[in-house]
Write a structure and sequence with these properties.
The complex is a heterodimer.
Chain A (H helix, E strand, L loop, with lengths): L7 H23 L5 H19 L1 H10 L8 H44 L17 H11 L5
Chain B lengths: L6 E7 L3 H14 L4 E7 L5 H7 L3 E5 L5 H14 L4 E4 L11 H9 L5 E5 L11 H18 L11 E4 H9 L6 H11 L4 E5 L14 H18 L12
Parallel strand pairs in B: 1-2, 1-4, 2-3, 5-7
Antiparallel strand pairs in B: 4-6, 5-6
Classes of the chains: A mainly alpha, B alpha/beta.
Amino acid sequence: MIGAQTPLKVSLVATAASIVLLVVVFELIRSRRLRERYALLWLLTGLVLVVLSAWRGGLNTIAGWFGVRGYPPAVLFAVGLLFVILVLLHYSTVISRLSDQNVVLAQRLALLEEVLTRGRADGRAVPLDRAGEPVAKRDARLEAEQLPRT
Amino acid sequence: MSESPRRIAIVPAYNEAKNIGALLDELREFDPEFDVVVVSDGSYDRTAEVARSHGAYVVTLPFNLGIGGAVQTGFKFAHDNGYELAVRCDGDGQHDPAELPKVIAPVLAGDADIAVGSRFVSAEGYRSSAARRVGIRLLAVVVSAIARQRLTDTTSGFQALNRRALELFAADYPHDYPEVEGMVMTIKHRLRLVEVPVLMREREHGQSSITALRSIYYMAKVLVALFVGLFRRSVVPAEDL
């Protein structure tokens, strides 16, 4: 039995669209607006879609495997949707990691700031010298010891 | 541990300029040996200034992290500065410093790593809505089952911790609504946890951060977190504590 065929027009348009996606992703990486580690999934998406769109026989066969009898390009939608879900999940993990790191940074910043402002009623930072001693305190001490300032 | 371990009260506060001064004075009056660190969690009122003028260390978070992030900042402060006993006492005045001796007693005596002040061990002094009670009751049943230990008040932030517990929570503490998950973490790390009955006060100014709709969201989130937590490996291996 010969299954349904992918119309040539659909194949051409889908191929063109997938190539546009690949070119856009490539351009984003080239201009450093997209990091490689976040682009890999997009590149994979583009490649898979290009292959499935251009290779009509393949798409028809794969559609047959999955029991898609009426309209093989439906497989294109399914694959596209699958990759979009993967990309979104990936982003959720990235956002979670970033917000965890953000919390740690905020805490560390606040704790360091406390060290620098400790004992100051106005909450302003105390400048420290290279040995970690407050500059004003060091100057007062040197004054008291009648030593020349360093 | 020496006779009188270095002790600190951790006070998380979000826009509590009106309440915080009185609380700090009460804390000092109750026990001058307590150092106090106020963690201002992205407050935009004068919380930090008031706290400083009442003699507390003040750690100012650059933006609001939520109660878990704020309390953990306090634990990190206590841990980094070598304190051996820490109590958490919320900045809204709900936790009465007069009840502190009850909360720290089991930890001071070495009978527990964490002691939690419970409103429900004995049924007096605290009123809340029916819906909230059901929720709190449900959480208590779930957590008690996980802990294999009877626990009544899993949402209480009135807690005393020793050094071992501080080490754990400075390294890893749940965010958002941390008390329930914190209890389970405690048990999983084989720290000893006890509940002691305390009286809690009504808030003096302002509103509690938990509203009706949010309590439902809260319940759902906590139950998911508890369930997933059962399948999670410890960040700090129990043997290391």
